[in-house]
């Protein structure tokens, strides 16, 4: 069974929440290693309000 879409959605949600906690805790910035998955990173940035759209 290939459940890639739900695994990606889960990952986006977990990393978004982690980033929110880091930012709230005073992290001066966040660095992402995209590993050729830039669309996922862009979605996280959108959810964090770092990108328009």
How would you describe this protein?
- By secondary structure, this protein is an all-alpha fold.
- The chain has one domain.
- The chain contains two helices and no strands.
- The chain has helices spanning 4-24, 38-47.
- The longest helix has 21 residues, at 4-24.
- The radius of gyration is 12 Å and the shape is globular.
- The protein starts with a helix and ends in a 6-residue tail after the last helix.
Quick gist of this model?
This protein is mainly α and 53 residues long. It has helices at 4-24, 38-47.
Give the overall form. globular
Structural class: mainly alpha
Average pLDDT, all residues = 93
Q: Specify the helix fraction band.
A: 55-70%
């Amino acid at each position: 069974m290939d459940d890639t879409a739900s695994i990606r959605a889960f990952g986006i949600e977990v990393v978004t929440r982690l980033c929110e906690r880091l930012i709230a805790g005073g992290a001066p910035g966040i660095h992402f290693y995209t590993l050729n998955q830039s669309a996922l990173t862009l979605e996280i940035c959108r959810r964090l309000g770092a990108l328009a759209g």
